Amino acid sequence: xxxxxxxxxxxxxxxxxxxxxxxxxxxxxxxxxxxxxxxxxxxxxxxxxxxxxxxxxxxxxxxxxxxxxxxxxxxxxxxxxxxxxxxxxxxxxxxxxxxxxxxxxxxxxxxxxxxxxxxxxxxxxxxxxxxxxxxxxxxxxxxxxxxxxxxxxxxxxxxxxxxxxxxxxxxxxxxxxxxxxxxxxxxxxxxxxxxxxxxxxx
Length: 202
What we know:
- The chain is an alpha+beta fold and 202 residues long.
- It is 23% helix and 39% strand.
- It contains five helices and 15 strands.
- The strands form four sheets. Strands 9, 10, 11, 12, 13 and 14 form a six-stranded antiparallel beta sheet that branches. It has a five-stranded antiparallel beta sheet with strand order 1-2-7-4-3.
- The chain is globular, with a radius of gyration of 20 Å.
- The mean pLDDT is 88.
């Protein structure tokens, strides 16, 4: 606590994968360590532009697979992403998380050729009692479009879902058994989906 560093911004819109999830960050050289993560990234006018939350000590790997260490690679959540969370906490006491109620796998070009299917997001699990189940989505469906936008990656799909609010309708273009079909699904709240699934299983 009570630590100030320069926090020079070297990149914006940096996509970083943490715990299997992609998120957009501001890259900064602010020192981020246990105890001072969550601190403000402030511009020259004194405005908070980000929340420092993540750092990496690996810049890449050499030809032998050994990690190349790095210093000064920190990441801050853009304030435009953080503010809605603050507002939701004030309004609801928790953060609604727009979700389809599925687990999925991103199809590579090799996967697509093997399946003789288009690239997209392969549905591997349907959450019990979730919106995907209610809408008739099925395991092995491949989501290839969301609201008229073609998707080939998991991050594309989740970005379009997160742009919606819980309760909104979303149109999925799905490839199933060699045919394309449209499925309209009502966005659910991941908090409630997980609670419902636990209650049903227990």
